[in-house]
Amino acid sequence: MTLLEKFLLSILFLLPLTQIINLFQQGALPLYILITIVVCICCYFFTLYLIKETMPLLLKAGIQGRDLHKPGTDPIPESIGIVSGPMYLGCVILLQIVYQIKLSEFNAGITSICFMVLLGFMDDVLNVRWRVKIYLSFVSILPLIVAYSGSTYVLIPKFVKIVFSTAHTAIDIGIFYKIFVTFFSVFCTNSINILAGVNGLEVGQSIVIGVAVLVLNLLRLNPNDASMDQEYARFSILLILPFLAVSFAVLKFNWCPAKVFVGDTYTYFSGMVLAVVAVIGHFPEMLALFFIPQILNFLFSLPQLLGFFPMSRHRLPKLNQKTGKLAGQKQHHNLINFWLRIVGPKTEKMLCIHILVFQAVCCVAAFGIRYLYREFL
Amino acid sequence: MINLFQQGALPLYIFITIVVCIFCYFFTLYLIKETMPLLLKAGIQGRDLHKPGTDPIPESIGIVSGPMYLGCVILLQIVYQIKLSEFNAGITSICFMVLLGFMDDVLNVRWRVKIYLSFVSILPLIVAYSGSTYVLIPKFVKIVFSTAHTAIDIGIFYKIFVTLFSVFCTNSINILAGVNGLEVGQSIVIGVAVLVLNLFRLNPSDASMEQEYARFSILLILPFLAVSFAVLKFNWCPAKVFVGDTYTYFSGMVLAVVAVIGHFPEMLALFFIPQILNFLFSLPQLFGFFPMSRHRLPKLNEKTGKLAGQKQHHNLINFWLRIVGPKTEKMLCIHILIFQAVCCVAAFGIRFVYREFL
């Protein structure tokens, strides 16, 4: 691992770690977080072991792919999300038993994630049409929508209050909140899927967003506050820590040069976990801000998705075999190619790091936007 | 059902549910047809060992029945606004089992992993289960132990029993197999028995929780019958598709979950008598006292087209064939399904006798 990679990885680890140590020193960090961290560390090592065991089984079943940026290499196993999904679910169910959580939204969230992993793996194995993919994401979030009995209020920004001359600080948008959440989770699952094609990118972006979610909820923790907000923050931490554990385990095998591909199973799983945590933890608007790179990639891709321009299956940059660098292609309208055309050809590893740094910068900016929004409310 | 309706005892919700399930049936038929070529293309197929010389047919059609069932139940949950946490947990358990079953079919995991997968899948329901853990004490036990109690609370042992029982349900349907239509057929017979049991429990003058349990059970078993009949249409002899571990695990888990949420696990155990017998017959081979091959099938006599029981295979199918003589594959399946139905009827008899002499 290069020095740069070590440096970036340690930031991902240390940032929440310092927060955790700080909170612990303040006596604000409950014992449960330490227990959860220990369980998640065990989960990480067990997932590593299961990934190693499953890779030959996937190859034998023919679930594999060729690395298009490394011509001449053998196919490697795909859909390692089939390990991360059940491991995550098993870990969360174990934590649910330990903490005796009977909240129906929690259960419904687990159902939604489980359904998405099932449909994602079915998609990977059977190669269903893209229209079916959208339908699958839509059906998966329904259990959570049914069970959701929390607030459907949104805060009104100050300028809107002035324009509409109202004294309310929040309006109840009722069923539109549920409709928004449904579309948002369909977006989350599919947008991670299309910001892909580079070793380590799908897992990497999920980890960066996951760390941002963890940091957000650690900031929300406040021992003096006894409102429901603390419950939401606790559930979010309980749901995001196992996700980071299994994702780091997958990253170990998926980082450039990849030994395994994640498949639609992982990208759907990842998008659904993040959407579910945001709904149960009551911070979907923050998650939307964390997803700015995915939103940008989606907007860039729209002309091709809608058919105005021809679209190939993998819209990858072109590999220059002499220099080993990837060059952005004019005909592919996505974030990766646009970025390479701006900064010039980069190696696959550097490209991945660039995009992940961009993701991290957007997440930090999201915190800034949140601060400004609240100050000027 | 028509009788109950005339009595005014059949609520409107059962009709709505039946209509939804009929749509579910036809939609599942369509999806099965669409998915069969996809399974073949992905290499998920098997040869019918009783029909030598035929092409491989698709396997693991449980990947259609599972999500269709879950989608149907979630739709009903939206319509009836059911927020009960055990209901949700039951859906999670079934979903987890379908996922692990399909993973097993595709990756061919070792049998030890199969047991572990069934065990993990029931955990969400065990966690959420907050109902009674009482068991009724039969009269003779009361006399022997000189106690006035009618029921004892066995607490955590109830949960342990349910866990082991669901592991048993999922795997026992899996081993009573190998004949076209048998896995789906036995599931449908047991499913119908479950439906009949809960229709009997319905009583408009009773306002206790028992009515809730019966209602949930009906809501959970009707979509199961719908998707199973759709699968049977393609799996009945001669089969055009195999069900795979995905379906047998799904089926066992649905039945176990309905029994837990509906509070009738002991009745389900009685419905499972053929599966229990098959398991007991198979024990010597499962434990390694006798050699065991992968498929313990009867031998096909290609001239007569009939299957003959094999001495070396210790399971219900072979034992039965050695008693009644060689039968065609379709007749064998019908025999076993009739035996299953007879056991289910006997179960009702046992229940009646048990309650009379309590």
Automatic annotation (TrEMBL), chain A:
UniProt entry tagged with the keyword Transmembrane helix: yes
**Any one of the GO BP annotations:** dolichol-linked oligosaccharide biosynthetic process
UniProt catalytic activity? a di-trans,poly-cis-dolichyl phosphate + UDP-N-acetyl-alpha-D-glucosamine = an N-acetyl-alpha-D-glucosaminyl-diphospho-di-trans,poly-cis-dolichol + UMP
Q: Name one GO cellular component term.
A: endoplasmic reticulum membrane
Give any GO molecular function from the UniProt entry: glycosyltransferase activity
Top-level taxonomic group: Eukaryota
Keyword Ribonucleoprotein recorded: no
Q: A Pfam family name for this chain?
A: Glycos_transf_4
Sorted alphabetically, the keyword list is: Endoplasmic reticulum, Glycosyltransferase, Magnesium, Membrane, Metal-binding, Transferase, Transmembrane, Transmembrane helix
Q: In the Enzyme Commission scheme, what number(s) does this protein have?
A: 2.7.8.15
**Hey, which pathway is this one from?**
Protein modification; protein glycosylation
Which parts of the chain span the membrane according to its record?
7-25, 31-51, 80-99, 105-122, 134-155, 175-196, 203-220, 232-253, 265-283, 289-309, 351-373
* Location in the cell: Endoplasmic reticulum membrane
Membrane topology type: Multi-pass membrane protein
Cofactor(s) annotated in UniProt:
Mg(2+)
Function statement: UDP-N-acetylglucosamine--dolichyl-phosphate N-acetylglucosaminephosphotransferase that operates in the biosynthetic pathway of dolichol-linked oligosaccharides, the glycan precursors employed in protein asparagine (N)-glycosylation. The assembly of dolichol-linked oligosaccharides begins on the cytosolic side of the endoplasmic reticulum membrane and finishes in its lumen. The sequential addition of sugars to dolichol pyrophosphate produces dolichol-linked oligosaccharides containing fourteen sugars, including two GlcNAcs, nine mannoses and three glucoses.
Please give the PANTHER family that the UniProt record associates with this protein: UDP-N-ACETYLGLUCOSAMINE--DOLICHYL-PHOSPHATE N-ACETYLGLUCOSAMINEPHOSPHOTRANSFERASE (PTHR10571)
User: In which family does this protein belong, per the annotation?
Assistant: Belongs to the glycosyltransferase 4 family.
Protein's UniProt name: UDP-N-acetylglucosamine--dolichyl-phosphate N-acetylglucosaminephosphotransferase
Per the UniProt record, the source organism is: Anaeramoeba flamelloides
From TrEMBL, chain B:
Report if keyword Translocase is assigned: no
EC number(s) from the headed UniProt entry:
2.7.8.15
Q: Which coarse location class describes where this protein primarily resides?
A: endoplasmic reticulum
Q: Which family does it belong to?
A: Belongs to the glycosyltransferase 4 family.
Record's protein name? UDP-N-acetylglucosamine--dolichyl-phosphate N-acetylglucosaminephosphotransferase
Q: Which reaction does it catalyse?
A: a di-trans,poly-cis-dolichyl phosphate + UDP-N-acetyl-alpha-D-glucosamine = an N-acetyl-alpha-D-glucosaminyl-diphospho-di-trans,poly-cis-dolichol + UMP
Against Pfam families, the record matches this protein to: Glycos_transf_4 (PF00953)
The role this protein plays is: UDP-N-acetylglucosamine--dolichyl-phosphate N-acetylglucosaminephosphotransferase that operates in the biosynthetic pathway of dolichol-linked oligosaccharides, the glycan precursors employed in protein asparagine (N)-glycosylation. The assembly of dolichol-linked oligosaccharides begins on the cytosolic side of the endoplasmic reticulum membrane and finishes in its lumen. The sequential addition of sugars to dolichol pyrophosphate produces dolichol-linked oligosaccharides containing fourteen sugars, including two GlcNAcs, nine mannoses and three glucoses.
Pathway named in the protein's UniProt entry:
Protein modification; protein glycosylation
